[in-house]
Amino acid sequence: MAIATSGAAVEMHEVDLRNKPQALVACSPKATVPVLQLPDGAVIDESLDIMRWALAINDPQAWLDGNRELPAEARPIIEQNDGSFKQALDRYKYAARFPERSAVYYREQAETFLAALNSRLGRHAYLMRDRISFLDVALFPFVRQFAHVDRDWFYASQYSHLIRWLDDFLRSPLFIAVMRTKGGVDAPALDRSP
User: Fold this and answer.
1) Residue 36: phi, psi to the nearest 5?
2) Residue 160's pLDDT band (boundaries 50, 70, 90)?
C-alpha cells in the first residue's frame, strides 16, 4: 500500500514460500517476503523499511507527517505488534502446530493488543489521528490476518471500533487496487456488506 501510494515504480513478483525461487534466496538469504531489490543492488527485506523507502520517494497522504522516522508514539505500538501480538497471532492461526495450548488461549493472548487498538480507535478514526498514518498501514495486515482466522468470532466481538477500522481498509480503493495488482482481489473475504 505504501508503494502504491508513493507511486514508486517497482516490479512485483508473487512468491510461493513453499517453493522459494532461487532468485529470492540469492537476493535475500532470509528468503522471506517482502524483499525489495533496488537498481543499485541494495536489498531492503523488512516491511517497515520498504514502507519508509517508498514514502521517502513520495508521501502524498503525509503518512509520515513529513518525517522519515516513525513518530515516537508509533514505535512502542509497532514493537508490540511485531512482538507479543505477532507471536500470539501466529499461534492462533496455526494452533495445530502449537498443541501445548488451545487456539482460544492464543486468541486471548492477542486480545490485549486488540483491546488497546480498539480503545485508540474510540478516540480517533484511525490509530493516531482522524486520518490514515503510517501506523495504520503497518498494522492493518496483521489485524486482517487475525480477523480472518475466525471471522464469525471477530465480527461478534466487542471490538466495534477495530471492526469499523478494518472494514474501512478492506473497502478502500487503495487496498482493492493493491490486491488486484497482486493477482486477485480478496477484499470481500472479510467484507460483511451484502
Assistant:
1) -125, 120
2) very high
Output the 3-class SS for the chain: CHHHHHCCCCCCCCCCCCCCCHHHHHHCCCCCCCCEECCCCCEECCHHHHHHHHHHHCCCCCCCCCCCCCCCCHHHHHHHHHHHHHHHHHHHHCHHHCCCCCHHHHHHHHHHHHHHHHHHHHHCCCCCCCCCCHHHHHHHHHHHHHHHHCHHHHHHCCCHHHHHHHHHHHCCHHHHHHHHHCCCCCHHHCCCCC
Contact between 121 and 164 (Cβ < 8 Å)? yes
List of residues 6+ apart from 10 with CB closer than 8 A: 3, 36
Residue range 58-114, pLDDT digits in tens: 999 999 987 777 788 899 999 999 999 999 999 999 999 999 999 999 999 999 999
* pTM of full prediction above 0.85: yes
Residue 121 phi/psi, 5-degree rounding, is -75, -15
Q: Is the dihedral of CA 129, 134, 136, 139 positive or negative?
A: negative
User: What are the structural domains of the chain?
Assistant: 2-65 (3.40.30.10), 74-174 (1.20.1050.10)
Three-state SS for 54-75 is HHHHCCCCCCCCCCCCCCCCHH
The residues pairing with 43 across neighbouring beta strands, listed in sequence order, are: 37
